[in-house]
């Protein structure tokens, strides 16, 4: 078998040329693409939230109350779209743009709870609702208590 | 009806970009759960320092819809309650100010989890 003729190389290039070719064909780092997508999707979700704030303000609600009502509405929509399987598709495209808004928080509540429904309504749905919401509430509430305590000491 | 939409888009978009950078630059240690937790605590701390308030004024929903806005509301509520009730306010204020959001998340979350079946 030693006399077997070698196949002609597909690329007749020097080592240096090969290096530049590698660079040319390696996929570009996806970070910039991801960041731009996060900006667009996050921006759109927040714009929808702003439309709800404006809507509730026009009903005569005070600024803070309108903002709270808009947040609750966005949570409802995030939960509904997760149930319908739509939010996962948004998440595949938007990355953090779909995670950081409250709709993403709602998604993190519904997705595991729905998944573990077969384990029952107490330890399945009831417990898994808090897979991510639990840590969020623990750290959020704890931070707010520390903030309040420090504020108390300084005043 | 359409006032503040552009500022909300820009501020909200930038906050989400920061989350994406955190995830991409610290792969794979920083999961979506880590993003949510750090945004809540970060928002609370920025709120306490008075940095988040102007962001809400400029960006409206762009600052209040991201989870950092939830953290800001928690901290703001705690500080306002301390003004009124002293030390007890530190414990009650945060949850009071965000009660609607927390209750909505639990209620709607439960409802949708029961009503829908996961895909696949």
TrEMBL record, chain A:
It holds the Pfam family SpoVAC_SpoVAEB. Keywords: Membrane, Transmembrane, Transmembrane helix. The chain crosses the membrane at residues 35-56, 68-87, 93-113, 125-154. This is Stage V sporulation protein AC.
Automatic annotation (TrEMBL), chain B:
The chain crosses the membrane at residues 6-23, 35-52, 87-111. It comes from the Bacteria. Keywords: Membrane, Transmembrane, Transmembrane helix. This is Stage V sporulation protein AE.
């Amino acid at each position: 078998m030693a006399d077997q003729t070698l196949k002609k190389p597909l690329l007749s290039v020097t080592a240096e040329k090969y290096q530049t070719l590698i660079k040319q064909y390696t996929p570009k780092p996806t970070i910039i693409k991801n960041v731009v997508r996060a900006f667009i999707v996050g921006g759109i979700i927040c714009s929808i939230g702003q439309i709800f704030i404006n809507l509730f303000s026009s009903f005569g609600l005070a600024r803070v109350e309108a903002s709270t009502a808009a947040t609750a509405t966005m949570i409802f929509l995030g939960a509904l779209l997760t149930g319908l399987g739509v939010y996962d598709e948004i998440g595949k495209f938007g990355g953090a743009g779909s995670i950081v808004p409250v709709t993403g928080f709602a998604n993190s509540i519904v997705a595991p709870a729905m998944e573990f429904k077969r384990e029952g309504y107490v330890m399945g749905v009831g417990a898994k609702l808090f897979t991510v919401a639990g840590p969020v509430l623990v750290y959020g509430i704890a931070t707010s208590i520390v903030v309040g305590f420090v504020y108390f000491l300084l005043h | 009806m359409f006032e503040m939409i552009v500022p909300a888009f820009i501020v909200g978009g930038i906050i989400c970009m920061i989350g994406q950078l955190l995830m991409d630059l610290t792969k794979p240690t920083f999961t979506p759960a880590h993003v949510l937790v750090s945004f809540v605590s970060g928002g609370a701390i920025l709120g306490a320092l008075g940095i988040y308030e102007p962001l809400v004024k400029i960006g409206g929903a762009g600052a209040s819809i991201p989870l950092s806005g939830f953290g800001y509301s928690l901290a703001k509520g705690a500080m306002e309650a301390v003004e009124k009730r002293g030390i007890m306010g530190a414990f009650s204020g945060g949850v009071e100010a965000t009660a609607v959001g927390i209750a909505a998340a639990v209620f709607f979350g439960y409802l949708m989890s029961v009503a829908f079946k996961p895909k696949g």
